[in-house]
Every structure is written in structure tokens, then in C-alpha cells.
């Protein structure tokens, strides 16, 4: 099996990325892997879809740092191949990273991923589902019971009124964004710096204002779902607690948050079950839920990360389970000769 990982850039990949864990797990099982980026698709006049892939010239590194060094160095090579020469296109880019400086690149994966799926390549998460999830507005399509009270607006008057209605204050963040960038806690609409915060966040478009959940002070729990259900092996869940740095409301690891072991409660599993139907319907093979109490702060469908943290905390490499699931889907696709849609196959 050959798996192509679609990422924002080759030079931006690191040894602690979950995509790296997937690549190592795939190679350990004897599969070929390659990487491609937003500028690496070619649709030729005869309607053939080609991809410019970055691969290793030889060897299958077993260590993350060795692999990344080879991928980004002279041990790599670029080849142009037909899309049909890969079995799986794993879309693992973060659109928000490209939204400002390379807007054309932000959704190239979903656009060309749709063409790949039409040509028989298993593409996950399903590109049509990802197209519907291009910003945090996607979250509003899930049951109200799992969402914090939320306002989406560009009006400072609307936001002030909303903040005043929240006894515990509110969180402001851009509708389009990730990694904890421009996330602020507002205790009152009378805060002197609210106008400055509003200007900083609204410069990126619409804002989300969410009722602040006091439990978030202790951090949130990132729980992975695969095929709509919690990913686990032998009682170890693909989950970890993201603890905010002192004095920071953001628990994102990229924002100095700390990864710690998480206890998965029946309440969390009930929340995961409540969002399962829509995730399955949208062909979301692998997602990350950020949970506080019985509420979900975000549903990460593009490039949920943290599996290396879980492996370090529990000694269980759940990236391997993800690769095995892809093997099973490729076998299903062969057995049914294209009679099962990509969207359905993505979560079987």
C-alpha cells in the first residue's frame, strides 16, 4: 500500500507531529509513503490527475528525528506520479496556517482531494466533509447539548451584550483559526482593552464568543475518534489532557500547554456518542474532540494532533491502529470495486 500525506509544507513538518507518527507506523508495516503539499497537484489536458511527491531515496527510518531529517534533506527526492499510483490520500494540512499568506493553498487539499476520490483513491477525511468544515461554523451543526453558549458576529455591540449575559465571562476567538492564536478571555464588556481585543481578532474575519467554562482552568481533554468512535486499544484511549500554562486560558500545546494523562469519564463518552452520527455522515475518519466537562470546545477535523504525546504518556502507539484501519478500508474498496462511496468508506 502507498499512502500520500498531504501537509502544508515539507519544511514545516517536525518529529513530534502526528503525521510523522503515521508515516513511521506505515513504514513499519511495510508500506510506501510519500508527502505532497498544496502546490503539488497537476490536472493535465487529458483529465489525468498527477501529484508531485516527496519520498525518501532509500531506507525506512524507525526514529522520528531521523525520518524528518531525511525527508527535508538530500535523502529525499521529488517524483511526479499519477494519482492512481497511491492507495490512500491522507489530508493532514491546517487550512488556517495558509489563510493569510497563501489563501489559494488553504483548501487545495479538499478541492483536489475530491478529484482523487472520484478517481478511486481512498481520501480521508472525506473532502466533501472537509469542505463543509472550513471554519468553526461547522461546530454549530452538532447538537446544542454539547456546545457552549455561542455567538458568531462581527459586531462589537452584539459581543458586548453577549459578554454581559455570561456570568463567568466569555472567550473570544476568530472563526477561522487554530493553535490558540488570538484567543482571549473577557470577564466583562467594560474591560478597557475590549476594543483592542476586538480589533485584533475581528481583523481575521468573524468572531466566536463562547460562554467561559470555569472547568477549562484545569485544561481540556483531547479525545480522538476514529470511524466515529473513541480510538482505543486494550483500555488505553487515544486521549490526553491539555493543561494551560500558568496565567493562560489556552490549553493548546502549541501555546505552551502541557500534555498530561487524561481520565476518560462516562460523561465524555456520552458526548462523543452524541456527535458520532454527523461525523460518520460527513465521512470524518479521524477527528479530535476538545472536551471540558460535558461540553466540546472544538471539533478538529483537519489535522488533529497529539498521538505522540499519548504514546509517551502510556507507551501505546495508536498511530499503528490508524494505519491498520486504512489497510482494511483499502481492502474493502478493492472487494467492492468502487461500489461504496468514498464518504461511506471513510468511516466504515
Determine the strand fraction and express it as a percent band. Answer: 15-25%
Number of strands: 19
Low-confidence stretches: 249-253
- Taken from the alpha-carbon principal axes, the silhouette is globular
Gyration radius, in Å: 20 Å
Helical percent range? 25-40%
- Look at the helices and sheets and give the structural class: alpha+beta
What is the count of helical runs? Answer: 12
Identify the CATH architecture of the largest domain.
3-Layer(aba) Sandwich
Overall mean confidence score, pLDDT: 92
Q: Under the CATH scheme, which class of the largest domain?
A: Alpha Beta
Which fold name corresponds to the CATH topology of the largest domain? Rossmann fold
Largest sheet: 6 strands, antiparallel
Structurally, how many domains make up the residues?
3
Task: Give the N-to-C terminal Cα separation.
Answer: 19 Å
Cofactor: Mg(2+); Mn(2+)
Keywords: ATP-binding, Glutathione biosynthesis, Ligase, Magnesium, Manganese, Metal-binding, Nucleotide-binding
Organism: Rhizobium freirei PRF 81
Family: Belongs to the prokaryotic GSH synthase family.
